[in-house]
Records
---
Amino acid sequence: MTRRIVIVGAGIVGSSLARELAGRDGCQVTVLDRSPAGRLHGSTGHAPGYIGVLGETPVLTELARATVRIYRSLGDDAPGRARPGGGAGFEETGCLEVATSPAAYGTLRRRAALAREAGLAARLVDAGEAAALAPRLVDPATAVAGLHFPGDGTARAGLLTAAQRRLAEAAGAEFADGTEATGLEIRAGRVHGVWLADGTLVPSDDTVLASGVWGPLLAARAGVELPLTPVSHPYVYGGPRPARHPRGPFVRWPGRHVYARDHGDRDGIGTYAHEPRPVAPADLGVRAEEPWPGGQFDGAVAAALALLPPAHRFAPDVRLNGVFSVTPDNMPLLGPFEGLPGLWSATAVWVTHAAGAAAALAEAIDGGEPGPAALAPDRFAGEPAGELRRRALGHYNDIYAAG
């Protein structure tokens, strides 16, 4: 008997899930996305691309471990595109967390202990070694110490998504690009399909929302509340410079809510050190991006750039105001909606956890199990929407580049 699975969203989460499910006995996988083929208009296309294994909770660490294993395995699917220490679109650059105060150093020591407990490689370094590891990004005059994670990496999310889509299609999955999902077909208290903008019904036995910041819109049309709050976030790029390989480590300043990335041919920097700027789901356009607002963002970016060594501070050449999701506990919404059989969520998932989350969800779908209870999308059922939104926005400044 054929099991029809429809995935709404062809970003890195939806494509990862399609790869996991396609080819399994009896699974017929269809992926719907309103973006044209090869275009990543959602959060995948705007992610800073940090792949850090250590999470604040064990479940996130395990999802990240699984994600790294899968990203490493993708190299054979994209000859010539592999990066040192990884597969297509993944490079083991390492990550360096930098403290600029005694309090921030305490955070690094706590994270070093968590890494040891999780069996991860991590090493505290002094300010001089931190600057030597990332000379373009770490100012030895302000650094107190650093924490180096050699096994972390950076992602080129577009390559990772494309590689997994190719594997999914080779196993029989179908991708319908330029196709907008507008509603869900519900009969006898169960989801039986997805309605498209042209009035077509795509029948399904299982429907997965992997549509990122737009997920609450489709869920609401089915009478389901998805406790996900879209927020806008600043990231800027410097001007082009001669490309260099290997790239330096991803750098984070946890105490300052700032992160920076060596993109090879330019540097980039992002910051969470500003008041959260929520975006109403109904106000979202077709891209997970908003106009640059100036003001508060300009000030936050200027403060972030001041952390770099004076010789390597740059005037922003490109300014990006991307939109991503926050949740009331800063965790993904992954698993079935218990009150509406046939509907699953794979939303609020970072690139850091995407492939691991997809693998866990595929096992749940194929085996009929709910998956990790800590990530259940309806775990906040019965709580006031306003309170959930307030808590979600309260986590924004705690993120400092989860991925």
---
Amino acid sequence: MARDRTPSRRRSRALAASVAALFVGGLALTETPASAASRPKGHDVSSHQKNVDWRKAKSKGARFVYIKATESTTYRNPYFGQQYNGARDVGIIRGAYHFALPNRSSGKAQASHFVRNGGSWSADGWTLPPALDIEYNPYGEKKCYGLSKANMVSWIKSFSDEAKRLTGRRPVIYTTAHWWNTCTGGSRAFASNHALWVARYDSADAGALPAGWSFWTLWQHDNGSGSLPGDQNLYNGSMTQLRKFARGH
């Protein structure tokens, strides 16, 4: 994910099936996927990108963006307003993500902080569902934040339940196959009602998926060397489907 205060880290990746199932309003819609060339391009940014030139990003093909809003319960991206509102002003579909630190406070507390500071959602067709970025600990050696597999699953559920209560939508889950299978024990508890945003680089496809998911909705395929500010992403469908995904239909 796009960095601001934290060091860079590696991620694993996930495979796109020949028939993709796309989340529409929390339900799976199965159909033939768009070709790779026609999939909407997007990116994700944080305070590291500062004041983004959104017109330039759109001219280079950006159709959606996720913007870091918060981390734990103590941090808010100081550039969030310019980034979030600026993307919308030029006609880019945007959403907010939260960087999880499960060893700092409860999932419920972090979801509440997130929603209060930019992580809300509305069915206006321009707002992506809130997203939870959960991956290796960038601040210490305990890659699973010192939580047991069962406690990690409980933490994610607590975050998801509170985000759903406050916004009406389940969060998209951003992760890697390796982290997920290592730190949740390959939990299958979330795949049926959480869209997957999977990270894997330097590959022609998304690779093996985290346990439980049979398809990806978003794929982060490059960590900062592409044409758009921040990390590069694809949406697994058409622009029409992306707009439906944003609206929750």
---
Amino acid sequence: MAKTTAGKQPPNHTEIDLINQVLADKGVSKNSLADQTNIPFKTLCRRLDGDGLLTLKELRKIASALGVWPSEILPEELTTKQDAA
């Protein structure tokens, strides 16, 4: 599955930024994404505008609809294993 345009995630981007970037890269509209994920359009728009948090279930549905791994639309700090101090 494809990474974001540059091949790796930009630093300091949120999952919303990454999802919106993948939507733009793939030319997928929010309306189409809502249809593919069965997330109500208004709910999806609120989430992608930063009003409220995406649930893990929503994130999984979005990743699947966009053809990417969930880790590709999560900020890098949430997907890298950190050693316990």
